[in-house]
Amino acid sequence: VSQATGAAGTHLGPRALGLAAALNKDLKLTMRKTCRVLQEMFGLSLSPGGLAQATGRIATALQGAYDESLETLRQSPVIHTDETGWWVGGPGYTLWVFTNPTTTYYRVVEHRDRATAQAILSDTFQGVLVSDCLSIYDGLDGVQQKCYAHHLKALSKALRSEAGQGSSYLLELRTLLHTALLLKRLVPDLDPVQQQRSRDFLETRFAQLLAHPRPPDTSQGQQEEKLRQRLAKQQDHLLTFLDYPEVNATNNHAERQLRPAVISRKLSCGNKTLSGATTWSVLASLAATCQQRGDSFIEQVAQAMVRQNRAA
Length: 312
What we know:
alpha/beta, 5-stranded mixed β-sheet, elongated
């Protein structure tokens, strides 16, 4: 800790700033609890307002690393994406996550729409996009895989309903999805001819089942039609994961990376300002990425602040 006086009465050194950022943005402690830990454990006196200013400076220092993480994702063979509502002085904003096994990128945006998603991904991304069935993803360029967990949940719910119970049509659709999942696990043990033959069978059978509307004159037929339309809309994205070794059938990874952000939102109600939302996005992204890679977020912050101080 340096002896200079900052807005909070204490000017934290690089590693102390790293610790503060990690407590707040990585471990998701509130501003007040972060200040309390710093005071009780290390004797560092810092107000929530001072911490907010400090994390803003850290985010500025790490903006380049944040931008680089997005470029890394754009060059990767697969990106998982998901989104949730966010507050910036009030409701109406969206937190988007774009992630793969080694990198996570959060961004708070004003609009949850196709144009925003396309702008973030840009034309640079040529890999496979894994997502849920939100309609804004439908018009995006490139190859996509839709989450099997969502499809299977919808089918199971339909089969439990009074109208859908005993539907051989719905049961076969569910069986085909499970068969595709099994085929993915068996790929290492199958020769290419067997793999292709099995995939062709699944594609052909899906096409047969989804080609024609179900009978509308019964409640079961109406239930079947809802599921037929759901899967027919995503028919081109049902078996993508069988063609790319690095692509999974579900979007569990994006949902898992979004969960800490949801917890943070519950604790803090999002952000008060757009500047605060940017700070949160930068630091939460890099903290999550460090965790994925086994790197130290505290050290990343400390090194960035040392470089910033030298350049000042």
